[in-house]
Amino acid sequence: MTGRATLLLAALLLLPAAAGAAGMAISASLDRDEVALDELVTLEVRVEAAEAPTLSLPTLGFDFDVVSRGSSRSTSIDMGGGAGLKVRHTFVFQFGLRPRHTGDLTVPAVEVVAGAARGETQPLSVKVLAAGSATRAPGRAGPPVLGFPGFPGFPGAPGGAGGGGQNGGSSRAWHGWERDLQLSVEVDKTEVFLGEQVTASVWVLSPVGVAETGNFKPPAYDGFWTEQLELPREPIQQIRKKDGLALRAYLLQRMALFPTRSGPLELGIHSVDLLVRVASDDAFYPFGDVQRVSRSSRPVAITVKPLPRGAPAGFDPVNVATATLSASLSQKSAAVGQPVTLRLVAEGEGNVKAWSLPPLPALAGTRAFLPTSSDQLAPRGVRFAGSRMVETVLVPETPGPLVVPPLSWAIFDPRAGAYRELKTPELRLEVTGGATPSGAAGLSQNTLFPGLRPIRPAGPLARATAPGTPWPVWAFLIGPVAAFLVLTGVDRFREHRVADGGARRVRIAGRVARKRLAVASRLLSGADGAPFFAEVERALIGYCGDKLGRPATGLTRDELARALAGSGAHVTALRALAAALDACDAGRFGGAVAREELLALAGRAMAVLEEVHWNHPGGGA
Amino acid sequence: MTALLVLWLAAAAAPTADASALATPPAAAAKPSEPAPTADPGARAEQASSLYLAGDNEGAARAWRALVDEGWESAGLHFDLGNALLRLGHRGRAIASYLRALRLDPGDADAQANLELARAQNVDRLVGEAQPPLHVRVLARTPDGAALALFGVSWSAFWLLLWLRGRSSRSARHWLGPAALLAALLAVGGGALLAGKSAERRTPSAVVIAPATPVREGPSRTLKPAFELHEGTTVQVLEAQGDVARVRLLNGLEGWVASADLEVV
Fold this sequence. Notes:
- The complex is a heterodimer of chains A (621) and B (265).
- Chain A has 621 residues and is an alpha+beta fold.
- Helices cover 21% and strands 35% of the residues of chain A.
- Chain A has helices at 3-13, 176-180, 473-522, 530-548, 557-566, 571-589, 595-609; strands at residues 25-30, 34-36, 41-48, 54-56, 64-78, 86-99, 103-107, 111-114, 117-120, 124-129, 182-187, 191-193, 198-206, 209-217, 224-230, 236-242, 245-259, 263-267, 271-278, 289-296, 300-305, 321-329, 333-335, 340-350, 366-368, 372-377, 385-396, 400-404, 408-413, 418-423, 427-432, 462-463.
- In chain A, strand 5 (64-78) and strand 6 form a beta hairpin.
- Chain B is α+β, with helices and mostly antiparallel strands.
- In chain B, 56% of the residues lie in helices and 13% in strands.
């Protein structure tokens, strides 16, 4: 039967099933009627219904494994026939089925439920041949994919793989891309030694563009130690040819797997959800469509051989590697008590994190601290590689040469398929003399400290503050504030005095003048009369100056009289003042006036002056 | 602002309580007012230096320690004592001495270098120890006297400038105002330093001087130790109860240790 005949058979199978309810049409088809045990057959169920249907694949008597699922939906609007506007939804479900055994198998009826409507497909038959048998390939007819139009050999190219229109049927019925869309797990080896690396790459192979991948579920990798080699954030795309068909290959993950037990092992099923871009085959709807599909991989069998016999003494099965070993000391000489680091580095390909490096034997006259280990991972392409460094701090306790003997590391090299024994060279450290106890005291340990900075003059010593002694913060806080308040207060006082000075002088002028007259009276009996007369004149002139608000010394009698008259002094007061001043002058220069008489004149003048209603500068008496 | 500053610094001026309860530092044992038993402490420090240079580390340490116990101090004195203690194998006490030298002179490169040398042999490696934040580093690099001086000078200048502004001409007020503001900001900075220093005094640093000391989750010695600290590890003393103290490691771990196993810096 040719491919064309196969497709005709599929078309014949597209008979409408008896729908359990009006308004729903169901049809089912297989893309081939003959399939090998290691091949896939695609079941397509097409449902026309008003609501989105749900499908239930039977579980009992179902002789297939479902390895992929996919669905699409299309809507058509019919305006002809005078029946008004009619909207039809078509739902297409595809299932990739892998037969479980050979023989004539039947895909049982599939139940479809859409709202209240219920129906089922008719059973379909397929002949299953032994694995590897030549079967009739399903036809490919012009895949409606977003490919590279005009690119020979690529989906979508005229005359490309499958050739357009070869089935002669409607392109709408062709869904070859669903079958060719696969999740594939590729391993570099299927037979390895225990602990030897297997590189597993998980690819999505697709004839259509993959817009998005998600929900990637790897298996548990039971029996393997796994290390990630690549996990691209965005799928890495390659172009591959498979069975003459160009496919896009997207790398999802690349792992280094190290078997941890011998015997047959299996890489389980990986699964992933994909969003694919499918071109429209509708001339009236030129835009592409995005469909969600899921794919699962096939299990991959791996045979793990045990390590061969004849392992050297001290070999640890985790040391399967293609590696080198080196050792070094951090310095060539050290003083007693000075720590030195011994570094043991293994570098190469293999399960670096599991490597067990040889332990350091006890070294006489040396104290060894617990070793620390660190790994540097640096995969080389698809090989897991790196280095493991073990550092041990040694503290020599006695002077003399310290010898680190060669260290031996037995490994199994899977490339050579044989055991190897790696050795480090002998390392020597010159330990210089230790500290000598101080002779006189004999108590000191006097440990040497290379790099210790020497003592120096203690410098000026000061009394330490006892712990808990509070800082004089209150003094710091309050002192400036108090000084500010005092200074401001003084300023205010002075300003007040300056502002009030004139009135005050006027107010106390009489008191001041009488005090001076009292002083003059005490000078009354003095041998020298000059101080007496000067004090009397100062009392009178001073009084006048205070009342005038300006110095009166130096004014002539007329000027003084006019100024006093201008300030409110009456004639009687002016005359009394003039009489007293004249008497004072006469007494001072002529001596004709009796001192008692002058004192009386001055007293009278003061009494009269104090009766004056002064109007300048204070305005009051 | 002034009122806040006053309240803040009043708290800073409060005497420390917890540290005094754990008075293990040598300087705390002697009253600073006590007169020295013999003459010139400088000469005695020089004699101790001679002993040290002659290899008598113990004699030198004893002489320097006597000076410290009498209440004398200088960065150099603590540094020299640290060297002698380090050579004697008292690494924890040496670290405490270097920390005291650095407290008096945060820029002392010699003390810093020897401190790192001594700490290099610490057994304890703290997991999760974070780089101290900027303000803590500034605090550590600022001597107590400098913080006090900064605050005192700027605070006084602030009030002086305020007073001058009140009695100056209009033109002078234009620059006296910003100057007073600057002085106020400096005073706030100085006050912050003082407050930080005060907080440090309330939770002083201490160094483990015992080869190993168990850390428990409570003050009772019957509790099972949660972990162990070793000589040279620096802790913060949060409180003291009897002969045990609650300490905090630099990575935030807390627990109770015997006070005798600590030396407060």
